[in-house]
Design a protein that fits this description.
Length: 198
Amino acid sequence: MSDIELDPPAKKPSLFLKQIIEWIAVIAIALIVAVLVRLFLLQQFYISGPSMETTMFSDDRVLVSKLAYEIGEIDRGDIVVFDRATMNGNQIEHDDLIKRVIGLGGETIEIRDCVVYIDGAKLEESYLPSRDLELTNLSDRCGVVNMDATKIESDEVFLIGDNRPQSFDSRMFGAIKKDLIIGQAFVIIWPPNSWSSL
């Protein structure tokens, strides 16, 4: 017999350990994909408040495409989520609001007796709640009855909620910069009985 010692055979990882490692890898990849989708493609938003009734209601959840305006243009009638920064004392607070695009950059918007005019032409708004249109008191019907003609800057949009008497929107805070838009809402995903495209 020789004095050479053979190394003991290398231990193979157990099947159980291999499965654990595979599961950890799958979960890690899924988390990375979920984070990337949320950051760059899609995000769910919770509707809080009545400003978009009857198109959507408080407690609904909508899916928003963050890529929509990277590859396309903002159109009148789009429903968008945007970042509304406000000052609270010496701190900046951010709220995500959802509204409908009414006016585009370069246009002049005006409201007369609750009717929106774009560049002097009446805007047809079939999405407005019929219950509001039946109200005889104009203030009850639309909140802001009249607004002087306002020119929208080329890098801005004018946003108004569908439920005009209960919406805090561009009629109060003015047009917003396009770069504040997070994305376009395109489907109501919750509750299940409200599922519909926008």
